[in-house]
Amino acid sequence: MRLDSYPTRDDGMRVWLSADEMDQLIDEADGPQQKIAFLLGGRCGLRRSEITQVCPKDFVTGPTGKHVRIWEDYAKRDHYREPPVPDTLYSIVETYAWDRDDDAPIVDVPDKYVYRWIRRAADRLQEETGDEGWQFVGPHDLRRTWGTHLLEQGVLPSVVMAFGGWDDWDTFRRHYLGEFSPEAIRRECAKIDFLGGEPETERPQFGTMPQTRTQYGQ
Fold it and tell me: CB burial class (10 A; 0-12, 13-18, 19+) of residue 133?
Protein backbone atom coordinates (compact mmCIF):
# COMPACT_ATOMS: atom_id res chain seq x y z
CA MET A 1 0.00 0.00 0.00
CA ARG A 2 1.24 3.44 -0.87
CA LEU A 3 -0.01 6.58 0.88
CA ASP A 4 0.38 10.21 -0.09
CA SER A 5 -1.07 13.48 1.15
CA TYR A 6 -3.71 15.34 -0.83
CA PRO A 7 -2.15 18.43 -2.43
CA THR A 8 -5.14 20.63 -1.55
CA ARG A 9 -6.48 18.99 1.62
CA ASP A 10 -5.27 18.70 5.19
CA ASP A 11 -7.24 15.58 6.06
CA GLY A 12 -7.11 12.03 4.73
CA MET A 13 -4.61 10.39 2.42
CA ARG A 14 -4.55 9.21 -1.16
CA VAL A 15 -4.06 5.46 -1.39
CA TRP A 16 -2.71 3.10 -4.04
CA LEU A 17 -3.38 -0.54 -3.28
CA SER A 18 -1.11 -3.35 -4.37
CA ALA A 19 -2.57 -6.13 -6.53
CA ASP A 20 -2.77 -8.42 -3.48
CA GLU A 21 -4.45 -5.73 -1.39
CA MET A 22 -7.02 -5.09 -4.10
CA ASP A 23 -7.79 -8.81 -4.13
CA GLN A 24 -8.10 -8.76 -0.33
CA LEU A 25 -10.56 -5.88 -0.45
CA ILE A 26 -12.68 -7.49 -3.16
CA ASP A 27 -12.73 -10.75 -1.18
CA GLU A 28 -14.08 -8.82 1.83
CA ALA A 29 -17.27 -7.98 -0.06
CA ASP A 30 -20.36 -9.21 1.78
CA GLY A 31 -22.50 -10.82 -0.91
CA PRO A 32 -22.71 -10.56 -4.72
CA GLN A 33 -24.03 -7.00 -4.85
CA GLN A 34 -21.10 -5.68 -2.84
CA LYS A 35 -18.67 -7.76 -4.87
CA ILE A 36 -20.03 -6.30 -8.10
CA ALA A 37 -19.63 -2.81 -6.64
CA PHE A 38 -16.05 -3.47 -5.55
CA LEU A 39 -15.15 -4.97 -8.94
CA LEU A 40 -16.71 -2.08 -10.85
CA GLY A 41 -14.54 0.31 -8.85
CA GLY A 42 -11.33 -1.69 -8.66
CA ARG A 43 -11.35 -3.49 -12.01
CA CYS A 44 -13.26 -1.06 -14.24
CA GLY A 45 -12.42 2.31 -12.67
CA LEU A 46 -15.98 3.47 -12.07
CA ARG A 47 -16.81 6.40 -9.84
CA ARG A 48 -19.04 5.81 -6.83
CA SER A 49 -22.04 7.49 -8.49
CA GLU A 50 -21.55 5.39 -11.62
CA ILE A 51 -21.41 2.08 -9.74
CA THR A 52 -25.02 2.51 -8.59
CA GLN A 53 -26.36 3.32 -12.06
CA VAL A 54 -25.01 0.44 -14.15
CA CYS A 55 -27.73 -1.85 -15.54
CA PRO A 56 -27.49 -5.38 -17.01
CA LYS A 57 -27.94 -4.08 -20.55
CA ASP A 58 -24.83 -1.92 -20.10
CA PHE A 59 -22.64 -5.04 -20.17
CA VAL A 60 -21.77 -5.83 -23.78
CA THR A 61 -19.51 -8.13 -25.76
CA GLY A 62 -17.90 -7.12 -29.03
CA PRO A 63 -14.80 -7.43 -31.21
CA THR A 64 -12.63 -5.89 -28.47
CA GLY A 65 -13.96 -8.12 -25.70
CA LYS A 66 -16.28 -7.51 -22.77
CA HIS A 67 -17.08 -3.94 -21.79
CA VAL A 68 -19.46 -1.95 -19.62
CA ARG A 69 -21.06 1.17 -21.03
CA ILE A 70 -20.96 4.11 -18.66
CA TRP A 71 -23.35 6.88 -19.65
CA GLU A 72 -22.66 10.49 -18.73
CA ASP A 73 -26.41 11.11 -18.70
CA TYR A 74 -28.27 7.96 -17.71
CA ALA A 75 -31.64 9.54 -18.48
CA LYS A 76 -30.73 10.48 -22.05
CA ARG A 77 -28.39 7.48 -22.56
CA ASP A 78 -25.80 9.43 -24.50
CA HIS A 79 -22.09 10.29 -24.31
CA TYR A 80 -20.71 7.08 -22.92
CA ARG A 81 -17.41 5.30 -22.46
CA GLU A 82 -16.63 1.59 -22.48
CA PRO A 83 -14.00 0.38 -19.98
CA PRO A 84 -13.12 -3.32 -20.32
CA VAL A 85 -14.65 -5.84 -17.94
CA PRO A 86 -12.84 -8.91 -16.54
CA ASP A 87 -14.46 -12.29 -17.11
CA THR A 88 -15.04 -12.76 -13.38
CA LEU A 89 -17.21 -9.66 -13.11
CA TYR A 90 -19.08 -10.42 -16.32
CA SER A 91 -19.98 -13.90 -15.04
CA ILE A 92 -21.12 -12.61 -11.63
CA VAL A 93 -23.35 -10.02 -13.28
CA GLU A 94 -24.87 -12.62 -15.60
CA THR A 95 -25.71 -14.85 -12.64
CA TYR A 96 -26.87 -12.14 -10.26
CA ALA A 97 -28.97 -10.19 -12.77
CA TRP A 98 -30.59 -13.02 -14.74
CA ASP A 99 -34.04 -12.37 -13.18
CA ARG A 100 -33.71 -8.58 -12.91
CA ASP A 101 -35.06 -5.98 -15.34
CA ASP A 102 -32.53 -5.25 -18.04
CA ASP A 103 -32.65 -1.53 -17.31
CA ALA A 104 -32.68 -1.73 -13.50
CA PRO A 105 -29.51 -0.82 -11.59
CA ILE A 106 -27.55 -3.88 -10.52
CA VAL A 107 -26.17 -2.21 -7.39
CA ASP A 108 -29.55 -0.80 -6.40
CA VAL A 109 -28.61 1.37 -3.42
CA PRO A 110 -27.75 5.04 -2.83
CA ASP A 111 -24.10 5.66 -3.71
CA LYS A 112 -23.30 6.51 -0.07
CA TYR A 113 -23.82 2.80 0.64
CA VAL A 114 -20.88 1.96 -1.63
CA TYR A 115 -18.71 4.20 0.52
CA ARG A 116 -19.95 2.47 3.68
CA TRP A 117 -19.35 -1.00 2.22
CA ILE A 118 -15.77 -0.19 1.26
CA ARG A 119 -15.06 1.48 4.58
CA ARG A 120 -16.39 -1.49 6.55
CA ALA A 121 -14.35 -3.91 4.45
CA ALA A 122 -11.26 -1.75 4.94
CA ASP A 123 -11.86 -1.57 8.68
CA ARG A 124 -11.98 -5.37 8.86
CA LEU A 125 -8.73 -5.60 6.92
CA GLN A 126 -7.08 -3.06 9.20
CA GLU A 127 -8.07 -5.12 12.21
CA GLU A 128 -6.86 -8.31 10.53
CA THR A 129 -3.54 -7.01 9.20
CA GLY A 130 -2.68 -4.22 11.64
CA ASP A 131 -1.97 -1.89 8.70
CA GLU A 132 -3.29 1.57 9.62
CA GLY A 133 -3.26 2.56 5.97
CA TRP A 134 -6.62 0.83 5.51
CA GLN A 135 -8.30 3.61 7.52
CA PHE A 136 -7.83 5.95 4.55
CA VAL A 137 -9.21 3.67 1.82
CA GLY A 138 -12.36 4.87 0.06
CA PRO A 139 -14.13 4.28 -3.26
CA HIS A 140 -11.96 6.70 -5.23
CA ASP A 141 -8.81 4.86 -4.19
CA LEU A 142 -10.06 1.85 -6.14
CA ARG A 143 -10.37 4.01 -9.25
CA ARG A 144 -6.98 5.63 -8.56
CA THR A 145 -5.32 2.23 -8.20
CA TRP A 146 -7.02 0.98 -11.39
CA GLY A 147 -5.84 3.92 -13.52
CA THR A 148 -2.26 3.74 -12.27
CA HIS A 149 -2.16 -0.04 -12.82
CA LEU A 150 -3.28 0.32 -16.44
CA LEU A 151 -0.57 2.88 -17.15
CA GLU A 152 2.12 0.68 -15.61
CA GLN A 153 0.89 -2.24 -17.70
CA GLY A 154 1.72 -0.19 -20.80
CA VAL A 155 -1.79 0.92 -21.78
CA LEU A 156 -1.60 4.16 -23.77
CA PRO A 157 -2.46 7.22 -21.65
CA SER A 158 -5.03 8.31 -24.23
CA VAL A 159 -6.74 4.91 -23.97
CA VAL A 160 -6.71 5.04 -20.14
CA MET A 161 -8.30 8.49 -20.36
CA ALA A 162 -11.00 7.13 -22.67
CA PHE A 163 -11.67 4.14 -20.40
CA GLY A 164 -11.80 6.28 -17.26
CA GLY A 165 -13.69 9.26 -18.65
CA TRP A 166 -10.96 11.84 -18.13
CA ASP A 167 -11.35 14.75 -20.56
CA ASP A 168 -8.74 17.16 -19.26
CA TRP A 169 -5.17 16.17 -20.15
CA ASP A 170 -3.52 18.45 -17.58
CA THR A 171 -5.60 17.03 -14.74
CA PHE A 172 -4.95 13.46 -15.85
CA ARG A 173 -1.22 14.08 -16.25
CA ARG A 174 -0.96 15.73 -12.84
CA HIS A 175 -2.84 13.03 -10.95
CA TYR A 176 -1.81 9.88 -12.81
CA LEU A 177 1.27 10.17 -15.03
CA GLY A 178 3.42 11.30 -12.13
CA GLU A 179 2.23 8.59 -9.76
CA PHE A 180 3.28 5.00 -9.17
CA SER A 181 1.98 1.84 -7.55
CA PRO A 182 3.34 -0.28 -4.67
CA GLU A 183 4.55 -2.75 -7.31
CA ALA A 184 6.60 -0.01 -8.97
CA ILE A 185 8.20 0.88 -5.64
CA ARG A 186 9.00 -2.78 -5.05
CA ARG A 187 10.66 -3.10 -8.47
CA GLU A 188 12.77 -0.01 -7.93
CA CYS A 189 13.81 -1.00 -4.41
CA ALA A 190 15.00 -4.32 -5.83
CA LYS A 191 17.65 -2.36 -7.75
CA ILE A 192 19.20 -0.82 -4.61
CA ASP A 193 22.25 -2.75 -3.46
CA PHE A 194 22.11 -1.82 0.24
CA LEU A 195 18.52 -3.09 0.36
CA GLY A 196 19.69 -6.45 -0.89
CA GLY A 197 18.83 -5.76 -4.49
CA GLU A 198 20.82 -6.29 -7.65
CA PRO A 199 21.31 -3.07 -9.65
CA GLU A 200 20.97 -3.36 -13.40
CA THR A 201 24.55 -3.66 -14.68
CA GLU A 202 23.76 -2.04 -18.00
CA ARG A 203 22.20 1.03 -16.43
CA PRO A 204 24.37 4.16 -17.05
CA GLN A 205 26.20 5.29 -13.93
CA PHE A 206 25.96 9.01 -13.27
CA GLY A 207 29.29 10.80 -13.07
CA THR A 208 31.20 8.30 -15.21
CA MET A 209 32.12 8.19 -18.87
CA PRO A 210 33.30 5.20 -20.87
CA GLN A 211 36.98 5.18 -21.70
CA THR A 212 37.59 5.64 -25.43
CA ARG A 213 40.67 6.01 -27.55
CA THR A 214 41.35 9.33 -29.20
CA GLN A 215 41.74 9.62 -32.93
CA TYR A 216 45.55 9.45 -32.39
CA GLY A 217 45.31 6.10 -30.56
CA GLN A 218 46.19 7.52 -27.12
Answer: middle
- What whole-number distance in Å separates Cα of residue 213 and Cα of residue 218? 6
Contacts of 87 (CB under 8 A, 6+ apart): 66
Distance set, CA 43 to CA 2, 11, 12, 167, 207 (Å): 18, 27, 23, 20, 43
Give, for 66, the enclosing helix (H) or strand (E): strand 65-68
- Which residue in 107, 108, 64, 68 sits closest to 90, CA to CA? 68
Q: What is the pLDDT of residues 90-144, one digit of tens each?
A: 999 999 988 889 999 999 999 999 999 999 999 999 999 999 999 999 999 999 9
Q: What angle do CA 71, 145, 77 make, to 5 degrees?
A: 0
Collect all residues with Cβ–Cβ distance below 8 Å to 203 and sequence separation of at least 6: 191
The per-residue b/e assignment along 182-206, b for 16 or more CB within 10 angstroms, e otherwise, is: bbbeeeeeeeeeeeeeeeeeeeeee
Read off the amino acid at residue 77.
Answer: R
